[in-house]
TrEMBL record:
<dbReference type="GO" id="GO:0016706">
    <property type="term" value="F:2-oxoglutarate-dependent dioxygenase activity"/>
</dbReference>
<dbReference type="GO" id="GO:0046872">
    <property type="term" value="F:metal ion binding"/>
</dbReference>
<keyword id="KW-0479">Metal-binding</keyword>
<feature type="domain" description="TauD/TfdA-like">
    <location>
        <begin position="18"/>
        <end position="173"/>
    </location>
</feature>
<keyword id="KW-0223">Dioxygenase</keyword>
<dbReference type="InterPro" id="IPR003819">
    <property type="entry name" value="TauD/TfdA-like"/>
</dbReference>
<comment type="similarity">
    <text>Belongs to the TfdA dioxygenase family.</text>
</comment>
<dbReference type="InterPro" id="IPR042098">
    <property type="entry name" value="TauD-like_sf"/>
</dbReference>
<keyword id="KW-0560">Oxidoreductase</keyword>
<keyword id="KW-0408">Iron</keyword>
<dbReference type="InterPro" id="IPR051178">
    <property type="entry name" value="TfdA_dioxygenase"/>
</dbReference>
<dbReference type="Pfam" id="PF02668">
    <property type="entry name" value="TauD"/>
</dbReference>
<protein>
    <recommendedName>
        <fullName>TauD/TfdA-like domain-containing protein</fullName>
    </recommendedName>
</protein>
<keyword id="KW-0614">Plasmid</keyword>
Length: 247
């Protein structure tokens, strides 16, 4: 039995839906090499029918050794290669104004673990408990975004080195040394008092959305492009591969 592939969006190379992946494929080196080639070519793979942690981990290992998350507290107790992403309104008072819509558990455009010496090649997300509404996840082809930058802006940022630092109290706060021209709109943040979903006094963080920013193995570059047409916004659907494993 072979697995099936379908372009995520017609006419775009970025993004591929893969169905019918089975354990027999993960045990076959030819099939494993094919999956790695598809990832390198399309950048984003969406696997259907990934229903167990064991299969998620085995599939993740096709693309390389798994790297536990740097923050030990985020690791799963039984499966240290996994970390769980969740939003609990009773314990997370932060709300986010995203284009006029108030959301909980929102994270702006980013790539994972930018603050470690050697970043992961990628990560695999699997939806475990679906939200009643919303839950969209966006992806941007950063290679395409960088290619679309004006030549003058490319020349300005090509030799710039970016130093990342993990700060658990803020999200996407730009350093003062980053020129405004290369800052993502998501970095422009203001605060306003509001009532949180818990009923207690809290803070709304306001974000522009969608910010034209993203990376896909384009090196340590901050890429922005208002002409970028390679963004994908996807809502979670049942049986669609939130635990996360990275390699």
């Amino acid at each position: 039995m072979s697995f099936r592939t379908t372009p995520l969006l017609a006419g775009r190379e970025f993004g591929l839906v893969i169905d019918n992946v089975a354990q027999e494929h993960l045990d076959d080196e030819t099939a494993r090499a094919c999956l790695r080639d598809l990832w390198a070519r399309h950048g984003l793979l969406i696997f259907k029918g990934i229903s167990t942690i064991a299969f998620q981990l085995d599939l993740s290992r096709v693309f390389g050794p798994l790297e536990p998350h740097t923050v030990r507290e985020l690791r799963d107790g039984e499966y240290p290669e996994l970390y769980r992403l969740k939003y609990d309104p009773d314990n997370d008072p932060w709300l986010y104004d995203v284009g006029g819509e108030v959301l909980g558990g929102f994270t702006p455009w980013h790539f994972d673990l930018a603050f470690v010496p050697l970043s992961n090649r990628g990560a695999m997300l699997r939806s475990v408990r679906l939200p009643g509404a919303g839950g969209k996840t966006g992806f941007i082809d950063g290679v395409e975004a960088y290619d679309r930058l004006p030549a003058a802006l490319k020349a300005q940022v090509d030799d710039v080195e970016i130093v990342y630092q993990m700060d658990s109290t803020t999200r996407a706060t730009p350093s003062r040394c980053v020129p405004r021209a290369v800052r993502s709109p998501c970095c422009a943040r203001t605060r306003a008092s509001a009532r949180c979903s818990t009923g207690s006094s809290g803070t709304i963080r306001r974000w522009s959305f969608p910010p034209w920013c993203g990376t896909r193995k384009a090196g340590a570059r901050c890429c922005t492009s208002r002409r970028c047409s390679r963004s994908i916004s996807s809502g979670w659907r049942r049986r669609r591969a939130t635990t996360c494993s990275g390699s």
